[in-house]
Design a protein that fits this description.
The complex is a heterodimer of chains A (about 160) and B (about 450).
Chain A: H1 2-18, H2 24-44, H3 52-62, E1 74-82, H4 87-97, E2 101-110, E3 113-121, H5 129-143, E4 145-151, H6 152-159
Antiparallel strand pairs in A: 1-3, 1-4, 2-3
Chain B: H1 5-16, E1 21-29, H2 39-53, H3 57-68, E2 71-79, H4 82-85, H5 95-108, E3 112-119, H6 126-140, E4 145-153, E5 157-159, H7 160-176, E6 188-192, E7 213-219, H8 222-231, H9 238-267, E8 271-275, H10 288-294, H11 305-323, H12 341-348, H13 354-361, E9 368-374, H14 379-395, E10 400-407, E11 415-417, E12 424-426, H15 436-440, E13 444-445
Parallel strand pairs in B: 1-2, 2-3, 3-4, 4-6, 7-8, 9-10
Antiparallel strand pairs in B: 1-7, 4-5, 5-13, 6-10, 11-12
Helix pairs in contact in B: 2-5, 3-9, 6-7, 7-14, 8-9, 8-10, 9-11
Chain lengths: ~160, ~450
């Protein structure tokens, strides 16, 4: 993960120099070059082996989940539907596969209506939010429930001053 | 759990069932550095700059929408009033510039780009005079370009020569898009006291006091407010309704600000403003008229609805102003007839008339908005309708605007279909008594006494 933070910082520095209007291709090229130049040093520190190009590509998606605020790296997953065995297992499996850990979980069944709210840590997630949403959609279809995933800071913004 | 189940469910209900969305994330972009002595070169530079700066806009905003879990309905761009960047290259075909800007909008994937505009509230420069003539052709020949003209301010009064020309311009634009119900007029707004940082179309442009590039956000959520008002006790006094709306507006605005700041950060641009307007869509339940009716009216347009709308816009502003330090834009309620299912119905049954919409202008912003009138309406009558709206804005120190469509070949009682976000509209009757002599006088209605504030 150090790689990604490093690339994020390089990108910010490059945009800082070239200005907001800088051509995206040029910026990506520069970031890749700089990263390649320092890659050996980074490698010896034992970080992952992904190519710089791939990392730079992932950056635009993941840049947001910098750990400035906890609530940006947390997802609130809400699950509703008719109760049957395997819903908790199914949903937590999706989270596990995406390398998201569960911070808090709250689940009830009232008159055979299932309701669950999970707070998950997505700071180590391998996938973009879009991909994760698609997984939830498929899992929801399979399990016969509705699954919604929203970043925690939406709730923070709306319900906390 | 850090949030109660009720809080989480309320947010989910808003985003999934009540159409809470961010109506638009609009990139404001200066094109002043694109001006050259040649229209072709100016067009090319404008196209290149829009495509460069906005290249990541749509993708980035969609990503944020997915992550935060809130729908962001539209991605748009507002640009420097085009009349200003073509001043140095007079005499050529201005539609070259219009088409280039439209093409750039298509390339970067935004649905509308606003700013084919001129600010002529006190008079025309030579170039602006030519520019005004180019608007009908520019709108008819493009699909995403929006245009606006500011014809009045509280400080300058009303430029009645401009008002007269806008009437003619509307007739021309409607005729050029005759087979599409006069669609070009749906992309044109005439303003008094136009705001420089409005993110909403069709009236958005990037004002002269704005920075190089900026992210502005328009929040919405009539469905959310409607749900709350409908579920409030039927005998709840009005100040309690105001309190309810205020609290919801706070929450909506906070969600909007979150998205706006995140978009600005990722695009490495400054965050401009959040516009607190309630804006309807043709989707059932996403209606401003529904809110008014839920307050206790049989139909929007009944007597008392001006008071109801006043309460609504004021409560929305109060909640929003507490939620964000960057409130700007229009920040009122939008009442576009064709884009609001219950407004359409009210107009169809005769509850909502042009006169009532004009009265509503005094307590919202764009009073006569997406109103279809008979194609036989004269240019002078259109100008007179605009003059009335402009007078309300100028005298009351507020933004007012008109978006009216004289639908060619249609008469009162018929409907016109635009589809998509623009919806469909019943043709509404206009007052048939003459006003032509007044409009033909031209000149300027002087600024009101309260413009002398210094």
């Amino acid at each position: 993960m150090a790689n990604e933070e490093l690339i994020y910082r390089i990108t910010r520095a490059v945009y800082g120099r070239l200005g907001a209007g800088a051509d995206e291709g040029t910026v990506e090229g520069l970031v890749t070059d700089i990263y390649r130049a320092i890659e050996p040093v980074v490698e010896t520190q034992g970080s992952g082996g992904a190519t710089a190009g791939g990392q730079a590509g992932a950056l635009s998606e993941r840049g947001s989940t910098s750990r400035e605020f906890d609530s940006q790296s947390r997802l609130i997953v809400s699950v509703f539907g008719v109760d049957h065995p395997g819903i908790v297992a199914g949903v937590s499996q999706v989270l596990a596969e995406a390398e998201c850990s569960i911070i808090d979980i709250n689940q009830t069944v009232v008159q055979s209506k299932f309701a669950m709210i999970i707070i998950a840590d997505i700071s180590r997630a391998r996938e973009s939010a879009t991909a994760l949403k698609e997984r939830f959609r498929k899992a929801g279809e399979r399990l016969g429930v509705r699954i919604y995933a929203q970043r925690e800071d939406l709730f923070n913004a709306m319900h906390r001053i | 759990m850090e949030y109660t189940q009720t809080e989480i469910l309320q947010t989910l209900r808003m985003t999934e069932m009540e159409h809470l969305d961010i109506r638009t994330v609009t990139l404001g972009l200066s094109l002043r550095d694109c001006a050259t002595a040649s229209l072709e070169e100016t067009a090319e530079r404008a196209r290149a700059k829009i495509e460069r700066v906005a290249s990541r806009l749509v993708q980035t905003v969609d990503e944020i929408g997915d992550e935060v879990g809130i729908s962001i309905a539209n991605k748009r761009i507002s640009i420097t009033p085009v009349s200003m960047i073509v001043e140095g290259a007079r005499g050529g075909d201005l539609t070259v510039v219009a088409r280039a800007i439209d093409a750039a909008a298509q390339t970067v994937g935004v649905d509308f780009i606003g700013g084919y505009s001129a600010l002529v509230h006190k008079g025309f420069t030579n170039a602006e005079s030519e520019f005004l003539d180019s608007i009908p052709a520019a709108l008819a020949g493009t699909s995403r370009l929006c245009s606006s003209v500011n014809v009045a301010t509280t400080r300058a009064g009303i430029n009645m020569d401009a008002v007269r020309r806008v009437g003619l311009l509307l007739k021309d634009a409607a005729e050029r898009t005759r087979e599409r119900g006069g669609l070009a007029c749906a992309k044109f707004v005439c303003f008094a006291n136009a705001v420089e940082d409005n993110p909403f179309m069709a009236g958005a442009f990037h004002g002269v006091g704005e920075p190089e590039a900026v992210i502005n956000v328009g929040v919405s959520g009539p469905g959310v407010v409607n749900h709350a008002v409908q579920h409030a006790p039927k005998d709840a006094p009005l100040h309690e309704l105001a309190e309810l709306i205020k609290k919801l507006s706070f929450k909506l605005s906070r969600a909007g600000e979150l998205v706006g700041r995140e978009a600005a950060r990722r695009l490495n641009l400054p965050f401009g403003i959040i516009d607190l307007s309630l804006a309807p869509t043709p989707v059932i339940g996403d209606s401003v008229a529904d809110i008014i009716e839920a307050m206790g009216f049989e139909r929007a347009g009944a007597h008392g609805t001006t008071a109801a709308l006043a309460l609504l816009t004021d409560a929305v502003k109060k909640g929003g102003a507490m939620a964000s330090t960057s409130v700007g834009g229009m920040s009122g309620a939008f009442i576009p007839v064709s884009e609001d299912a219950s407004m359409i119905e009210a107009a169809r049954v005769g509850a909502l008339t042009l006169e009532k919409l004009e009265a509503w202008t005094s307590v919202c912003s764009v009073g006569i908005d997406m109103v279809a009138v008979p194609g036989s309406t004269s240019a002078e009558t259109l100008s007179a309708i605009i003059a009335d709206e402009m007078a309300i804005g100028v005298m009351n120190n507020k933004t007012t605007a008109v978006r009216i469509i004289p639908v060619p070949g249609k008469e009162v009682g018929e409907m016109v279909e635009y589809g998509g976000l623009l919806g469909s509209a019943p043709i509404m009757p206009v007052n048939s008594f003459g006003c032509a002599d007044f409009i033909r006088r031209g000149g300027r209605i002087p600024a009101p006494i309260h413009s002398l504030r210094n």
